[in-house]
Each structure stands twice: as C-alpha cells, then as structure tokens.
C-alpha cells in the first residue's frame, strides 16, 4: 500500500545480515557496521528481526528505552548523544528485556511485516536488517516484506568450522 511505501521511502539502501547458524556474530557485525557507517557521516537505521534473541538494544546501551507511536507508525529508538542511529527491536516491546518470546510462525511473520511497514524511519542512507540464526520462516517473511524496496544486498556471516 501507499502508507507502507511511505515509511521506507526515505531509505536509500537496505542491507540484510544473515547466517545459517547462531553465535557467529551477526548482531555484533550489524552494530559495528552501523557505527562505521555513522562514523562515515551516513544516516543509519538497524531493524532487529531476531525476535527470540534481540541483543542489539543491549549492545547499543538502549535496552531500557521505549518505542512510541506517531501518525505514520512506530518511532524507532534513537541511539547516542547525537541520536544518529535509529533502532527498532522487539526488545523494546517486552516488559522485561530478558523475557522469552515463544511464538509460532504466523505471529512472528506478522510482527516482521509490521516492523517493515509500520516504523517511521525518516531519511536514512542505510537500513541494516539483523536477522535471527538459521534459514527459517522469519527470513522468508523478511525478504518477502522487503522485496518491493530493492535490497542493496546481504552480508553472510560464517565461521570456519
């Protein structure tokens, strides 16, 4: 719909961070990539779709922040003294940051679609999408929801086992 397009209309490049397994450093890489791009003068957002292990709010020391509503949807949490990195994560929607998320596919998929369509990102040079481990429904939902927006590409994080 037109409203969906509006929230990502100001985002120039979308980059997925993926891996086939957990514990390889996707969230760390997503965070460091965002910080490096910010250091280079870019406007950056991170969409944390790791619904069962949302670690980026803690990595960026904003785990106690709350998400607010505006006319065009959710307002992401802005990170740092200069508020230069926009972040959306399920970690902001839980009562306690360590609460477990135990959901079946349809509910996870609906939230991912909502994250893609209902977050008011504003003007960004890069939106980095941190995905959960594996190759599950969440990945398919994320890619399908982002398909109309011309992904810049993906970074595949692996380890040499």
Defining traits:
161 residues, alpha/beta, Rossmann fold
What does this entry look like structurally?
It is a single chain. The chain is α/β, with parallel strands linked by helices. It has a single domain (11-157), classed as P-loop containing nucleotide triphosphate hydrolases (Rossmann fold), CATH 3.40.50. Helices cover 30% and strands 24% of the residues. It contains five helices and eight strands, in the order αβαβαββββαβαβ. It has helices at 2-8, 26-39, 56-59, 105-117, 137-146; strands at residues 11-18, 44-48, 68-70, 73-75, 77-79, 85-89, 124-130, 153-156. The longest helix is centred in the N-terminal third of the chain and has 14 residues, at 26-39. It is globular. It starts with a helix and ends in a 5-residue tail after the last strand. The mean pLDDT is 84. It holds the Pfam family ParA. One of its GO terms (biological process) is iron-sulfur cluster assembly. One of its GO terms (molecular function) is ATP binding. Keywords: 4Fe-4S, ATP-binding, Iron, Iron-sulfur, Metal-binding, Nucleotide-binding.
| Broad CATH class | Alpha Beta
* Protein structure class: alpha/beta
At the fourth level of CATH, the homologous superfamily is P-loop containing nucleotide triphosphate hydrolases
Mean of all residue-level pLDDT scores:
84
Order of helices and strands: HEHEHEEEEHEHE
Radius of gyration: 14 Å
Q: Regions with pLDDT < 50 over 5+ consecutive residues?
A: none
* Number of DSSP E strands: 8
Fraction of residues in H or I helices: 25-40%
Amino- and carboxy-terminal Cα gap: 44 Å
Quick one: biggest sheet? 6 strands, mixed
């Amino acid at each position: 719909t037109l409203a969906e397009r509006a929230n990502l209309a100001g985002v120039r490049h979308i980059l997925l961070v993926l891996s086939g397994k957990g514990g390889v450093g996707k969230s760390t890489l997503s965070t460091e990539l965002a910080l490096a791009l910010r250091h280079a003068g870019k406007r950056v957002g991170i969409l944390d779709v790791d619904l069962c292990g949302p670690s980026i709010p803690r990595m960026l020391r904003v785990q106690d922040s709350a998400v607010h509503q505006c006319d065009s949807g959710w307002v992401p949490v802005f990170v740092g003294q200069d508020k230069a990195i926009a972040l959306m994560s399920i970690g902001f929607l839980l009562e306690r940051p360590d609460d477990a998320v135990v959901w079946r596919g349809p509910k996870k998929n609906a939230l991912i679609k909502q994250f893609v369509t209902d977050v008011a990102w504003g003007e960004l040079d890069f939106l980095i999408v941190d995905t959960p481990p594996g190759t599950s429904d969440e990945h398919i939902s994320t890619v399908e929801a982002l398909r109309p927006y011309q992904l810049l590409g993906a970074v595949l994080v692996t380890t040499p086992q």
